[in-house]
Amino acid sequence: MLDQKNKRPPFDHTAYRDFLDDGVIGAAAIDDKGIIVYANQAELQLTGYSSEEYIGKPLSAFYSSEKGNIIKLLQEQQETNNLEVCVICKNNIDRWAILTTRHFTDADNLTCTYIFNRDVTQYKKNEDLLWYLNTAVEELAQARDTHTALQKISKLIVPKFANWFTIDVLNNNGTDLLILAHEDPEAVNWAHSYRKNNPIDLNSDRGAGGVIKTGKPSFVPVITDEMIKSAISDPEKLKEIEKIGLQSVITVPMFSKNVIKGVITFISSIPGKYYDETDLRFAQNLANHIALALDNARLNEAAIAEIQNRRQIEETLKLTQAQLRSALSSGLVGTWTLDTQKNTLYFDESISKMFGVPYSPEGCDPVLLRQLVNVDDMNVADRLRNKAIAEQGVYETEYRITVNGINKWFFVRGKTELSNQNNEKLLTGVVVDITDRKRAEEALKQSEDVFKLIAETIPQKLFVTDKTGQINYYNPQWEEFTGYSIDKIKELTLTHFIHPDDLQNNLEAWFAVVENGDDFQYEHRLRQKDGEYRWHLTRALSLKDDQGRVVKWIGSITDIHDQKLKEQKKDEFISIASHELRTPLTTVKAFFQLAKKLIDTTDRSFIFIDKAGKQLDRLEKLIADLLDVSKINAGKMVYNTEAFNFDEALAEAVESVQHITDDHRIIVHANANVSFKGDKLRVEQVINNFLTNAIKYSPDADQIIIRSFVQENNIIVSVQDFGIGIAGENLNDLFERFYRVDNTAMRFQGLGLGLFIAAEIIKRHNGSFWIESKPGEGSTFYFLLPINGKQDFLDIDTDNKTYYKGNFVSISYNKHTKWLDVDWKGYQNLESVKKGCLIMLDLLRKNQCKKVLNDNTHVLGNWSEAVDWGSSVWFPEMEKAGLEYFAWVYSPSTFSRMAAEKSVDINMGKITAQFFVDTKEAAVWLKNK
Length: 929
Ligand code: ADP
What we know:
By secondary structure, the protein is α+β, with helices and mostly antiparallel strands.
């Protein structure tokens, strides 16, 4: 019996399942492989599947646990109690369940695991929502500014609770969209633009508008396509809305202290994810917390603003008090009070000092001060004061008082106030000594008057610009000249009157000056009212402030037309005269040659004939020079280009000069036995000129050395004499027309045209020239002619950042010393100097370096035109790029050193430059900077 009792009957699955079939708890059974073999009605209802869809499938297809493989978990333990699992129900809806299991083995030894499933989705959801709410409230409470808190909350909500989350707050005339959140930033952009076009309609009974109107939430648990279609008639709008994929929407009002502040909307756009009443409660709860937080934030912000405002007021007050104290202590400001009832004036010691009257703390009769005021100002002051008292207003005037014989200006200001007792009127105020200001104003006015007077009376046209170079003043002479009113001229601007052929260069020159702040000088033609163009010289001086910034340019434009015409006439005359002189001279020379042949050299008259011949040669040369100059000026110099052997031409030139001198021997070192393409006669003319000058300016010497050689595709010629030499300051002007060094002008015959013509010829052959000279020791004149017709300045290698190598310069940034090493080589001209300097500027910028070691030791000549460009354009740019120290190592060539010094002296700005003869010394100097 006992045995019978203890022995359990074999487990009967069928009976057990019959029993479970009608149970309210979900139950299922899996075999030892985890395949579902049984499910009761409650289980099928819970998961939403039919028994065909459910039974026969592995349990893991529906159930999962965070703890690991669900089947293992269930089968490995004898019994499982309260395992939290997630159930994937039909239509992908997730539910949460708590599982309990039991294993049963039947008579056939078949083991089944029974699963009992309690749906806890709702609890779980409540728990989650509670967590959201708590976290959100915490965020809001901790937040320094609400906006950041709301951003964080958005992240909590999206996408777990809602796919779209918006907060709109009411303002005076509508709503502001405070938050619009979605996972996809592009969707956010789209929604913003949608909302811009479709703001909340506060008059609507539906949606957010309705919620605001009624204060009641709007909750649509399941949104069907039909619902959307019936609500939105505009097809465009409908298309847009369909993009959202609305599934379920909650819009709740935000209340704070029973006042509606705005609305919050939660949208689910995941198919099957629908909101329920719990969600609605959560939404409402959250909305109220947010409303409260927003309210608090607003109060907080207002409080902070108020505190800041007060602080500012306090600061200003402190400042004003300090200013007042310092004003009062300056002795230039005094305070006063006029008691109208008692007719007593009280003033402080400052006023007593300023006006030179005794100080009395008991006050005095106002007449005492009134009578001091200059009669011309007295009546105005009286009238204004009485008016201020009558109208209880402000009294403000300026008057003069003679203090100790000196006329002084004072500014007075007062305000009428009612005193508390007896309704007395008190006028209280200050007096300020404004004599200095008045004097400055008068001086300014006077100088302006003087300027106006000058501007209106002088014959020149004047203009004044602002600091950007825009003209803002034209004197009346412009009206007379152009026939337009000043206003019209301002409208047309000066460029309207400039000759089209001069305009481009004129503007370039002007813009360069505006950039550098230099003075300006330019010759151009301006159109007068009858349409005729007249030559003018424009000069503009820049006016600078204390910091060296240009304030304005003042320009004068002088009519130089007649002068210019005279010059042209003179040139024409020289041209005609030299032509006319040449013809008879040629005839005279021919007859002279004949005569010379006929006379016996032993004849006494031969000496005279010979002398006459030399003078004839000189005359011929002078006339030829004059003719050349007039041709150069008229741009009519013709060059006959041909290929010739250079040294042969040189020999011919030497021979013709040697022929006319007995005192000097010309020593020739000719090493340019190359073919050169150019105007042979003109090149000979240059050599001829250098040689005759060398002879002329070395009367006590007996030899001249001429050298020719080829270097780097250039023919270089030097003519060296041992004569009087040239002082440094005269070197630059030598190549000007009619220029002669002062102290030689009287001693030596000449017109000062030879070098001008020579320079012109060399330039036309794309060559360059330079001079080395020492007064008393002699000069060497050089010129260079490029064999290819153009000097080649070739790039060899560069990384465009730290180094550049060319055949004329090498530049490299030394990262240890942090300076640019620049080594110029060979013969330079304007082109090479510009090219090298611009590369230097580029590397200086790229390496942000402040120092340059500019080595000219290997320079062999320099083109003087580069000097002006260097000082006016390049140096200021280098300064802007950050250059601070510039070590300049001399070239042995004097001319180049001259050029160097000129550049730096002219435009040092913030740059410190120093000259050296030794590269090492230069490096030491730079290192110590
Ligand atoms: P010119 O010799 O007719 O005066 P140039 O144009 O040939 O005109 O020379 C201009 C000036 O340059 C001369 O007046 C003289 O002062 C100076 N000059 C030219 N060559 C020499 C030289 N070799 N030595 C000294 N001074 C010279």
